[in-house]
C-alpha cells in the first residue's frame, strides 16, 4: 500500500470515529431528557454545530433511532428498545433475576433495582417500583456511581483486593450530597464492614431523601457481575428496617448468584 493510500485510509478512519462520537454524544443527551429537545438545545449541550446535529439526527430518524415531532424537536425512538432488549437477553442476568426481584419487591415494599457490572462500570439493568414510590431518580441504562451508592459499594466490597485498591487510588471521592463519605479511611472502614455483613448501606449520600441497601451478585468464579439494591425514602426506610431489609437483599443476591453458577457456600463475610 502506498503511503498516500495509508494516509487517506487513516484520515477516513478518524472521520468515521468523529461521526460515531457525535452520534453517541447526541443520543446520550436525548436519553437523559424527559421530553423532546430542539436542535439548538442539543447543539448547545453537546458542543456541536446545529448543522452537524441536524445531519446526525436526520440519519437517526430514518432508522427510528430518534423520533421528531411536528415542530422539529427530537426524542429517543423505538429502535433503542431492540438494542436494550438484546443486551438484557445476551447478559442473561435479568432473566435469572426477575422472579427473585418480584419476590423481594413483594416482601419489602420498596423500589428494587438490578445492576450489571462490566469493565469497571455498573449500570441500571432493571427497576421495579412500588405503588408508593417517592423520588428515586434513576433510568435503565444509566451509569451507577460506585462509591456513593449501596449497590456500588457492595460491588467494590466483592472485588479482589488489588482491583479495589486500583479503583480507590484512581478515583476522587467527591461529595454527591452533604452526607457523602469522602474520607478514604472512613470509606475503607465502610467497605470492610460491608464485606462482613454481606450488604452495603447508603443514607442520603447519593440522592437527598433516599436510603438504600445493596448486595453484590457473584459469577461462578466469585467475581461480582452485578448487584441488587432496595431504595426508599428516608421517612419509610428507618434504622430499624435497614438490617432486616439488608439481610433480605443479601439473600436475594446470593440466590441469583447460585443460579449463575456461584457455588461457594458462605454467609456474610464470604463474598
Automatic annotation (TrEMBL):
Source species, domain of life: Bacteria
Gene Ontology annotations of biological process type: negative regulation of DNA-templated transcription
Stretches assigned to the HTH iclR-type domain: 17-78
One annotated GO molecular function: DNA-binding transcription factor activity
Record's protein name: IclR family transcriptional regulator
Transcription regulation recorded as keyword: yes
InterPro entries cross-referenced by the UniProt entry: GAF-like_dom_sf, HTH_MetabolicPath_Reg, Tscrpt_reg_IclR_C, Tscrpt_reg_IclR_N, WH-like_DNA-bd_sf, WH_DNA-bd_sf
PROSITE patterns, per database record: HTH_ICLR, ICLR_ED
Domain IclR-ED: 79-262
Originating species: Aminivibrio pyruvatiphilus
Keywords: DNA-binding, Transcription, Transcription regulation
Amino acid at each position: 500500500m502506498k503511503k498516500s493510500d495509508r494516509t487517506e485510509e487513516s484520515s477516513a478512519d478518524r472521520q468515521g470515529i468523529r461521526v460515531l462520537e457525535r452520534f453517541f454524544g447526541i443520543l446520550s443527551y436525548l436519553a437523559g431528557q424527559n421530553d423532546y429537545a430542539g436542535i439548538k438545545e442539543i447543539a448547545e449541550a453537546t458542543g456541536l454545530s446545529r448543522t452537524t446535529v441536524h445531519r446526525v439526527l436526520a440519519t437517526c430518524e430514518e432508522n427510528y433511532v430518534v423520533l421528531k415531532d411536528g415542530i422539529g424537536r427530537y426524542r429517543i425512538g423505538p429502535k433503542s428498545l431492540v438494542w436494550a432488549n438484546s443486551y438484557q437477553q445476551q447478559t442473561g442476568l435479568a432473566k435469572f433475576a426477575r422472579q427473585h426481584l418480584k419476590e423481594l419487591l413483594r416482601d419489602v415494599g420498596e423500589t428494587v433495582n438490578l445492576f450489571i457490572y462490566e469493565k469497571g462500570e455498573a449500570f441500571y439493568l432493571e427497576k421495579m417500583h412500588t405503588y408508593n414510590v417517592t423520588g428515586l431518580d434513576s433510568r435503565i441504562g444509566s451509569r451507577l456511581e460506585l462509591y456513593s451508592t449501596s449497590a456500588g459499594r457492595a460491588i467494590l466490597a466483592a472485588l479482589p483486593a488489588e482491583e479495589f485498591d486500583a479503583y480507590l487510588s484512581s478515583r476522587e471521592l467527591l461529595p454527591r450530597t452533604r452526607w457523602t463519605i469522602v474520607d478514604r479511611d472512613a470509606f475503607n472502614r465502610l467497605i470492610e464492614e460491608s464485606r462482613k455483613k454481606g450488604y452495603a448501606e447508603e443514607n442520603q449520600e447519593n440522592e437527598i431523601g433516599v436510603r438504600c441497601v445493596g448486595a453484590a451478585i457473584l459469577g461462578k468464579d466469585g467475581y461480582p457481575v452485578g448487584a441488587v439494591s432496595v431504595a426508599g425514602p428516608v421517612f419509610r426506610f428507618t434504622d430499624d428496617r435497614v438490617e432486616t431489609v439488608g439481610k433480605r437483599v443479601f439473600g436475594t443476591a446470593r440466590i441469583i448468584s447460585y443460579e449463575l453458577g456461584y457455588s461457594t457456600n458462605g454467609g456474610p463475610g464470604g463474598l
